[in-house]
Amino acid sequence: MTSATTTPIAPGSSGIRRRGLMLVLSSPSGAGKTTIARTLLAADDRLTMSVSATTRPPRPGEVDGRDYRFVERAHFEEMIRQRQLLEHARVFDNFYGTPRAPVEAGLGDGRDMLFDIDWQGTQQLAHNARADLVSIFILPPSVAELERRLRGRAQDSDAVVRGRMAKAGDEMSHWPEYDYIIVNHDIAQSVAEVRAILAAERLKRDRLVGLAEFVRGLRGEE
């Protein structure tokens, strides 16, 4: 883990600074991940959404650099060759991926980066940056409730809902690969649990830069 410039953990902390972390939320569609992510971002100004790069064209209302970084396919393929992506995947005819440079810059500045990605992307992040990763899998309280939530959104046809339900079983089979598991019975409670995890992970010893020097000073060893 590098120790680039990082944000102080508290005013007057005598030089102790904190490296940021990568907070990953994954879940099957309909389990509440997106709602949890939006609530966290609205409540915590130390948390920033990681912006993915994609080769698909912008949709109406999407803004480059806010929703996605829109790039040409040749550029994306060059980013893969140059190892400039922390994770990437092909979805149908388009590519999606996480640019390495802005994430590493954010972590170095002590900012926490939030990722809304699936288990495959999480595996790649674990391979490329395990020390910075905190992964949480969101489970629905039951299969019936998951289907109820999907149908309650009134956004998808019956065929799409059936497809999402069929895919959910495979996605949920990867729960053992995650650091934390939350069963989303209630959004407010689930958000509180994620915030508790985040608070604890921010205090992990290995993320506190300058801690050893601070303790040596307390012991009069400097």
How would you summarize what this structure contains?
With 222 residues, this protein is of the alpha/beta class.
- N-to-C SSE string, H for helix and E for strand: EEEHEEEHEEHEHEHHEHEH
**Under the CATH scheme, which class of the domain at 7-50 and 110-218?**
Alpha Beta
As residue ranges, the low-confidence spans are 1-5
Query: Which CATH architecture of the domain at 7-50 and 110-218?
Result: 3-Layer(aba) Sandwich
Quote the distance from N terminus to C terminus: 25 Å
Largest sheet geometry: 5 strands, parallel
The CATH topology of the domain at 7-50 and 110-218 turns out to be: Rossmann fold
What is the strand arrangement across the widest sheet? Answer: 4-9-3-10-11
Which term fits the overall shape?
globular
Helix content range of the residues, please?
40-55%
| Structural class assignment | alpha/beta
CATH superfamily of the domain at 7-50 and 110-218: P-loop containing nucleotide triphosphate hydrolases
> What is the overall number of helices?
8
Average of per-residue pLDDT values: 91
User: How many beta-strand runs?
Assistant: 12
